[in-house]
Amino acid sequence: MPSITLDGYPIAYAEAGSGPPLLMVHGTLGDQRSWGGQMAAFGAKHHAIAVSLRHCWPGQWTEGGDFTIARHTADIAGFIRALGEGPVRLVGHSRGGHIAFRVAQHHPELAHSLVLLEPGGELDETLGGAPPAGKQGAAFARGAALIGEGKVEEGLTVIAEHTGGPGAWEKRSEARKAVNRDNARTLLGQVNEQRKPYSRAEAEGIGIRTLLAGGDRSQPQFGTILDALEGAMPNATRVTIANAAHSVQADNPGDFNAAVLAFLNNH
After folding, report:
1. How many CB atoms lie within 10 A of CB 265?
2. Which domains, ranges and CATH numbers included, belong to the chain?
3. Which of 30, 135, 170, 259 has the most CB within a 10 Å radius?
4. CB of 26 within 8 A of CB of 237?
5. Whole-model pTM?
6. Cα 13 to Cα 33: distance, rounded to the nearest angstrom
7. β-strands 236-241, 47-51 pairing
8. How open is the CA angle 5-103-89, to the nearest 5 degrees?
9. Is 252 helix (H, G, I), strand (E, B) or coil?
10. For each of the chain's 267 residues, which pLDDT tens digit applies?
């Protein structure tokens, strides 16, 4: 498995194809395998790369305090620079969408275009807030506490139902459950990730072409964030993927892949 070492830590990744670089960043409890349904489609015309964030499989989280948005944003920026292929088409899902947003905000020279797939987080008052404020943090803290007690399935169920609604864990394929189990302990680090809410000034400052994508069956908090970013980002377009909840790229990979490729081809 290839990797690029950043600040002493190997960032593992999977890759396919050749052409303009397209970098995918996974969400909470995921890793590079979260993009399995995209590698062949994106690799047909791009150098498709799916990273595993620091401490995610094949790594693991241990006590250390560096499972933060800032750390992972710096890692993705460093990875792009080390890759040496110029600015990338940057795709992020959920927490990975938040990281992709921060990379575009702080390192605009590294992102050619941006795809935010139900980016996670909350909104500050300049974007109308995301009521009820703090709901996500509370759910993640509850899930992490259960995992810390050794009740892994119970903790993963809490997170799955927060993002996917009642019964979401039971509906997941065994392959997706295995990825979540492999990364369960990263949630113990993520509860202290210091994630800032999105602000209007930050969103307005991202001028590159951006595709905002969501599923038609997703929980309402993700639509609230997409609505706010769509209204604030100056060069954003929106697409809704049918028959998909929060894990859009896994629920309906065909339509999601087609939407992303059409967006990139139209640039």
Report:
1. 8
2. 3-130+196-265 (3.40.50.1820)
3. 30
4. no
5. 0.95
6. 9
7. unpaired
8. 85
9. coil
10. 999 999 999 999 999 999 999 999 999 999 999 999 999 999 999 999 999 999 999 998 877 668 999 999 999 999 999 999 999 999 999 999 999 999 999 999 999 999 999 999 999 999 998 545 567 778 889 999 999 999 999 999 999 998 888 999 999 999 999 999 999 999 999 988 889 999 999 999 999 999 999 999 999 999 999 999 999 999 999 999 999 999 999 999 999 999 999 999 986
| Cα–Cα distance for residue pair 73/100, rounded to 1 Å | 7
Strands (E), the chain: 3-6, 9-16, 21-25, 47-51, 88-93, 111-117, 210-215, 236-241
C-beta separation of 233 from 127 below 8 A? no
76: number of Cβ within 10 Å: 27
Contact present, 211 and 115 (Cβ < 8 Å): yes
SS3 75: helix
| Best CA proximity match to 218, nearest among 97, 118, 109, 93 | 118
Structure-block tokens of residue 24: 């995918």
Reduced to 3 states (helix: H, G, I; strand: E, B; else coil), residue 178 is helix
